[in-house]
UniProtKB/TrEMBL annotation:
<keyword id="KW-0344">Guanine-nucleotide releasing factor</keyword>
<comment type="function">
    <text>Specific and highly efficient GDP-D-glucose phosphorylase regulating the levels of GDP-D-glucose in cells.</text>
</comment>
<dbReference type="InterPro" id="IPR058866">
    <property type="entry name" value="GDPGP1_N"/>
</dbReference>
<dbReference type="InterPro" id="IPR026506">
    <property type="entry name" value="GDPGP"/>
</dbReference>
<comment type="similarity">
    <text>Belongs to the GDPGP1 family.</text>
</comment>
<dbReference type="GO" id="GO:0016787">
    <property type="term" value="F:hydrolase activity"/>
</dbReference>
<keyword id="KW-0963">Cytoplasm</keyword>
<dbReference type="InterPro" id="IPR058865">
    <property type="entry name" value="GDPGP1_C"/>
</dbReference>
<protein>
    <recommendedName>
        <fullName>GDP-D-glucose phosphorylase 1</fullName>
        <ecNumber>2.7.7.78</ecNumber>
    </recommendedName>
</protein>
<dbReference type="GO" id="GO:0080048">
    <property type="term" value="F:GDP-D-glucose phosphorylase activity"/>
</dbReference>
<dbReference type="GO" id="GO:0006006">
    <property type="term" value="P:glucose metabolic process"/>
</dbReference>
<keyword id="KW-0808">Transferase</keyword>
<dbReference type="GO" id="GO:0005737">
    <property type="term" value="C:cytoplasm"/>
</dbReference>
<keyword id="KW-0378">Hydrolase</keyword>
<feature type="domain" description="GDPGP1-like N-terminal">
    <location>
        <begin position="28"/>
        <end position="184"/>
    </location>
</feature>
<dbReference type="GO" id="GO:0000166">
    <property type="term" value="F:nucleotide binding"/>
</dbReference>
<dbReference type="Pfam" id="PF26216">
    <property type="entry name" value="GDPGP1_C"/>
</dbReference>
Amino acid sequence: MAKSAVEFFSYTEKDFHFQVQCNNEDSNFDILLKRKWAKAEEDNLLRYSVKVQQTKVVEGKYGFYAQLNIERATLRRRPDDITSMIQPFDSEKFNFMKIPQNEILFNIGNCDENDIIAVNVSPILWGHSLFVSKCTSGLPQQATLHSFKKAIELVLLSNSENMRVLFNSLCANASVNHLHWHFYYLNHRMLLESISLEYFIGSVYILHDFPAKGFCIKFSSFDYQDINKYASYAYKIVSCLQENQIAHNIYITRSKTDKDKDIFDDIRIYIWARKPSYGIKNTNDFIIAACELFGHLPIRSQEAYESMHEQYISEYLNDNTNDAFLSAQKLIEEILSQNVENKNDLTLS
C-alpha cells in the first residue's frame, strides 16, 4: 500500500481539547473519523451491524453496562493462539499489514512513523476503530512509549466526553499479536469516570472500591497539559508489568475533577494486572479484557445477557485481578519508592 493512497490527518497541540462538556460539537478528528467509518459501513466492510443492539444497566451499586453483541462471537476473525507475554511478532500470521487498503481510514500524526487508524470490522460499538502504531515495523502486542503517548492524544483530539481508548496485552485477551490500541465512543456515563481512588505512591492511585482492583494515573496529578510526563509516568507502570510478564489491560477515559460539575477536565488511565489467559481466547458469552474491567460488558449470548447479575460479574472481575494486583503492587511500589520526591521526573524518549 502506498502511503499517498491514504488520507493523512495532521495535528498539533492546538488541536487538543483539555476540557470538554456533554454534547459538544465534533472536533476535526471526530468529523474525519465518523465520515470514514460511515463510508466503511456503507461499503459493507463490517462483518455485522452494531446499530441495533440491546443494552442495560445491571442492577446494583457498580452500574455495570451490559451490551448484547452475539455476532461478534460468531462472525469475527479467529483470534490468535497466544502462549506467552513475550511471544514474537509472526509475519506469517494475520497482522494489520495484511488488511485491505479500504479498511485503513487514515494515517495520523507524523506519516514517517506509519501510525494508522483502521476500522475494526468486528466492532463493539459504532465507530470502533484501531490505532496501529508503526504498522509496517511489525511490532508485537507490547505497549511502547510512542504508542502510549499517541493513545492519550487520541482522547485529547476528540471533543467528545465519550471517547475511550484501550489496550489488551498478550495473555490478557489480545486477539492479534501486532501492536494496536482500540478506541470507541461509549455514550454512557460510567462509575470509573469519577469513583473515589485511594492514594498509593508517587502519582499512582489504587482503584480499591471496585471488584476489579487496579491502578490509576490521573492527568491532573501532573503539570497542566504536560502529555510527555503523563505518558512517561504511566508507561513506567506498564513497562514494569511487561518486564515481569504480568498480563495487563489498560483503559483511558475522560473524567472529572469535580463529579458534580458538567466539565470533563481530567483524564484517567486505568491499568489492571490480571490473571493470564493462554491459547485461543474463548469468544463466547463473557470474557475479561479492558472494557469489561472498566464496567462495559459486551455479552455474546442471549442467555448470558438475560441472566447477568452484579454478584456474578463482581466475583468474575475479582477472581481475574485480585492476586495479580497484589503481586504487581509490590513491584510497582519497589520501582516508584525511589521517585516519590521527584514523582514527575520522567521524560519522553
